[in-house]
Amino acid sequence: MENKHPLLLEIEKGESKNLEFKVQLPTSKEWVKSIISFANSAGGKLVIGVSDNRTLIGLQHFDLFELMDKISSTMHELVAPTLLPNIYIENINGIELLVIEVQRGALLPYYLKSKGKELGCYQRIGATNRVVSQAQVIELERQRNHISFDSLINYEVDLSTLDLTPLQQRFAAHGKPLTPEKLLSLKLVKNDNNTLYPTHGLLILLGFYEHVEIKCSRFKGNTMSIFLDKKEYTGDLFQQIENAELFIKNHLHLRAEVLGLQRTDTFEIPFPAIREALLNAVMHRDYSNFGRDIKIGIYDDIVNIVSPGGLPHGLTMHDALKGRSEIRNTVIARVFKELDLVEQWGSGIQRIKEYCTKANTGLPVFSESGDFIDWEFPRKTHQSNEVLAINDGISDGINDGINDGINDGINDGINDGINHQTAIPKNIQPLLTCIKQAPSLSTKVFAKKLDLGTATVERHIKWLKDHNVIKRIGSKKDGYWQVLNNEK
């Protein structure tokens, strides 16, 4: 089989955090925002000569060398600090494409000179370029200087007012007394002008901030329409983790195995894998954004763990899956390592997959959705909503139709079940409306229009397909969604 060009393989996957297409170089200089976004994020490529539907058009009618000079001069004129992308020509099956490639920059943040750092700074979120907030500009400046948010002093909090007992007890349980010297060496406190101040890391570990929280929910079915259980856990991070683990365990099925005289109960999803994902979410989330928290959703078909903040410091999904590690929260990570909550840096994703492979439960899906990290663990012991709906309807119909005959009751039940299964939950209705208006749009475009994560849109599409509300006509690349006539 003929090997495809590496760039063609990237193009066939579509636009992403690291890739964008243009048929030709826009005259509006909008393309410069993409280069700035790549430089402030994980690097990337802007490929000129490719249409939105991933068709290679080429640039046969352009003087490519003149175009390359124009790009270089435009970058020098519009962007600060100086950014030098790699500009080159790729020939794929006789079609010439122009590639503007930039690595993650060393002089963060990069911005449009005309708008200044406050208004002209952009980052790559998913396949879009977004203006960076003032808080994010500050975070980029910290990254340039290799300073983590959790290592900074909070001068507004008096150290003497803090109860360090939860942290002291955790260290004592590991035979490691939490002395003043230890607090300093772990950067939980810092000395400034002969006064000890707490760092953000210490305050995060103690659960001092409101956004340091884990929200857990058990939903009925495969959507967020109906809550069956809901808890919000605050306090020190270690107690939050334990409470979240207990919540998940309470809503997972147990499977009993008898070997000889011993009975062993195991969860439908290997719990070490879930615990590893939860620890990673707590350790690597973005704590500098005070408006977001960790969310755990348990559905009939999956267990979902979502943490705020994409992959840190220019890490790509490919890098993460290969085991490369970048530490966003150095203080918290150091404490977790000290308390044996971390085995080896960069090994978590691989261990999670190994746990699930060994247990034969299906591999979890790890993704970066917008500015969030998303884990989805498939549940092995659930019935589909469609089956449950029909069964419920049959039961109701039989009970209602006993006096009129079992056969009529069963028919009524089947109809009730089918009607029940096609009632569209409120949170999925906006997506169905979008599909009716533009059935050929991609999942990523739907996600952008609805301001939802790609994984959420994919889950909603699955629900609509499973309930025979929509069906796919044609291929994934060139097809469209057909809305059937049995939705309520």
UniProtKB/TrEMBL annotation:
InterPro entries: RecG_C_sf (IPR038475), Schlafen_AlbA_2_dom (IPR007421), Schlafen_AlbA_2_dom_sf (IPR038461), WH-like_DNA-bd_sf (IPR036388), WH_DNA-bd_sf (IPR036390). Residues 15-131 form the Schlafen AlbA-2 domain. Keywords: ATP-binding, Nucleotide-binding. One of its GO terms (molecular function) is ATP binding. The keyword Membrane does not apply. Coiled coil: none annotated. The keyword Nucleotide-binding applies. It comes from the Bacteria. PANTHER family: GLPR-RELATED TRANSCRIPTIONAL REPRESSOR, SCHLAFEN ALBA-2 DOMAIN-CONTAINING PROTEIN. This is ATP-binding protein. It comes from Pseudoalteromonas rhizosphaerae.
